[in-house]
Amino acid sequence: xxxxxxxxxxxxxxxxxxxxxxxxxxxxxxxxxxxxxxxxxxxxxxxxxxxxxxxxxxxxxxxxxxxxxxxxxxxxxxxxxxxxxxxxxxxxxxxxxxxxxxxxxxxxxxxxxxxxxxxxxxxxxxxxxxxxxxxxxxxxxxxxxxxxxxxxxxxxxxxxxx
Length: 162
Prior knowledge:
By secondary structure, this protein is mostly helical. It is 63% helix and 0% strand.
């Protein structure tokens, strides 16, 4: 029998409680939760078991993380930047491939919308093109597809506000 003084006690909420609190704020991947909760639980097996139970009950879902990131970030960021963000969150390769495919299908339309919102009010053509280039590069929209180039030059896709 162990004495009560030698038995470690956990202060604060349980692992599941901490995980649920994090999940209530926003969707998290399993790897994000592992990183955030590791400092609260020295035994990795207990942490793994708690996360397994939450995943079995549907509280942890990679698909919801993908949907959330795509919904909130795709309108402002390019495919590469969204992919990097998903990678940092620990999304699987299959999930990354699915997200990138969805983003590439809409990249030109998203680039045109960014151009329309951010650049239209700019003054002369040279200023607009310089601002466009800087904006698209900063948002990670300068990918291999050339969507920013098509959006900036028009090519019959958008009219040049003059």
